[in-house]
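Thought: the user asked what RHG15 protein looks like in 3D. I have the sequence; next I should run the structure tool and report back without guessing.
Action: structure_tool
Action Input:
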Amino acid sequence: EEKLNLDDSQWEDIHVVTGALKMFFRELPEPLFPYCSFEQFVEAIKIQDNATRIKCIRSLVKKLPRPNYDTMKILFEHLQKIAAKESVNLMSTQSLGIVFGPTLLRPEKETGNMAVHMLYQNQIVELMLSEYSKIFG
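Observation:
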């Protein structure tokens, strides 16, 4: 309910805007990729055949609750536009995966596999950005 003045100079720094976006997703009661689907997405990203991997990720995305799917589609469309301007902003799909992977997709309970999970989280976001049209099209 707080009214924000987006003309305020504090919003000119893109890092503030990005930080606010990441904080919004991090503070949701459940991640954008629901806890119950974490292991399924991890297993999907491990598939060796790229076409099968994309098909599996697409299927998992389509099964998400509608609000999650709609939000994800808009967010990834936006992040894809950011990646398209990598020469200016230095944010590749890989960089965006590193930044947003752990925020959007995480296990309900952290285990000793945190470093391995982080690698998969990054790869999932990266794949979804690079194959956006196949996954959301």
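Thought: the tool returned a structure. Summarizing for the user.
Final Answer: Structure for RHG15 protein predicted. Helices lie at 14-26, 38-45, 50-62, 66-84, 86-89, 93-104, 114-130, 132-136. Residues 66-84 form the longest helix (19 residues).
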